[in-house]
Amino acid sequence: MEHSSETDRPRVVVAVNASVDGRIALRRNAPLMQEESGRIWHALWPASTRDVEAARTEDIARTYAPQAMLEGSGSLVAESAGSPDGLDARFEGATEDLYSDFLPVSVRERPGHGKWFTVVDSRGRIRWTMKHQGEYDVLVLVARATPPSYLAYLRAEGISYLVAGEERVDLAEALRRMRDRLAVTCVVSTAGGSLNGALLRAGLVDVIDLLVGPMAIGGADTPSVFDGPPLEAGAMPTRLRLVSAHVETDGLLRLRYDVERGL
């Protein structure tokens, strides 16, 4: 798929693993970060999964050279989680100053820095225990409704953030700001269904690279690859063009699609 140089946002590649019925978890409110859910989920995947995942990562890196990974806060904390307790960071300036982008030079020029681990967290729910790992540094996407105490905490911890949107993060604006402020040209979303569904509805998905495991999970409320609001009456589903299909003898599939534009 061509991605015009005139596009004012990064390319978005959704790279996730799902069952044959499109489920990305065992049930609602059972995130895979929980030990039991994670153990069962990983046991379902056939032996070829690790090698195929590695090949997918290499293919995406070679083809698109992504500079950012994208996740939702729900992948890191429980859906019921609120703002962390005990955020006592002090900020000496005006509260309004907190709602400007925070991109410290110490992060952007950190030896080894090359990419961003980007998390959408308009509610300010994550207390960070790790600010960077390898070439990745944390970048938080927030909104003007994000509590100022949380923004002061991020500044005190030296964690970068971009402000985009009012009540919640405006994903299109956030992506544009990532391109304008950080020269990001490709983002890989490994997020859950809510964030990927929001990206899809906003017309922000360009490529879908899907691993399909030989299992069926079911459940009307079980998280899927693309969750979110249903199509409006008369609206057309997103059309895809199959780019490649790979089948392993143990039942694992890898399917890569480009999103068709202008249809």
Question: Topology, pairings included?
Answer:
Blueprint: E1 11-19, H1 35-44, H2 49-64, E2 68-72, H3 105-108, E3 115-120, E4 132-133, E5 136-142, H4 148-157, E6 160-163, H5 171-182, E7 186-189, H6 193-201, E8 207-213, E9 240-247, E10 253-259
Parallel strand pairs: 1-7, 1-8, 2-3, 2-7, 3-5, 5-6
Antiparallel strand pairs: 4-5, 8-10, 9-10
Pfam family, one: RibD_C
GO molecular function: 5-amino-6-(5-phosphoribosylamino)uracil reductase activity
Keywords: NADP, Oxidoreductase
Distance between the termini: 14 Å
Under CATH, the topology of the largest domain is which? Answer: Dihydrofolate Reductase, subunit A
Instruction: Determine and state the CATH class of the largest domain.
Output: Alpha Beta
Number of continuous helical runs:
6
Uncertain segments are none
Could you give a short account of the major beta sheet?
A: 10 strands, mixed
- Tell me the domain tally: 2
Mean pLDDT: 91
Radius of gyration: 19 Å
CATH superfamily caption of the largest domain = Dihydrofolate Reductase, subunit A
Annotation, overall tally of beta strands: 10
CATH architecture of the largest domain: 3-Layer(aba) Sandwich
Characteristic key phrases:
DHFR-like_dom_sf, 263 residues, 22% strand, Dihydrofolate Reductase, subunit A, single chain
